[in-house]
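Holo model, adenosine-5'-diphosphate. Inputs:
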Amino acid sequence: MQTDSKTYSRLSIVQGDITTQTVDAIVNAANNSLLGGGGVDGAIHRAAGPGLLKECRTLGGCETGSAKITKGYNLPANYVIHTVGPVWQEGANNEDALLAKCYRSCFTLAGKHGIKSIAFPSISTGVYRFPVDRASRIALKEIYHELVTNIKLERVIVICFDNSTFDAYLSAEKELSSKK
Ligand code: ADP
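Output:
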């Protein structure tokens, strides 16, 4: 894949809390019901307020690898894109492809809504136990691909909540950028 310095300058990997990000859309690592959960899902619902759950109730859930969009309510972000990552099952259930599909589904929805800046959490690497070294490579590969092919996308931020996630994404970035 061809990437250049412009591609890299549109990507940031930061440690922080996704609910405070001032971007057009934040991504939620949700579950199939879309009715709220723990981890980043719980944090987003708490920060967005009850309007978010009300809208989520109208969506009829979401398949693993797919995504649905809502408004951002009390969040600084205008939209929340809810995607459902795969639960890690020792790699026996197409998890790599499903995780990649989550990122692609989010970008498809972002494109449809004119979203120019988007923040992702580390999908599936919490309660869903996807190994973060592996997940970070998949995530960044899909993000780079989108940045290269979609010049309308101005900014992608990967928000890492804890140190070990942050380190994993930085290593994956180093590894992938050295292959350019
Ligand atoms: P999943 O069920 O997809 O594994 P989790 O929410 O359990 O989702 O975890 C996904 C990642 O989100 C983990 O790295 C977790 O530490 C992180 N996380 C939890 N809260 C936040 C937050 N407020 N902002 C960003 N990331 C968060």
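The mean pLDDT is 95. The first strand starts at residue 11 and ends at 15.
Archived with the compound record.
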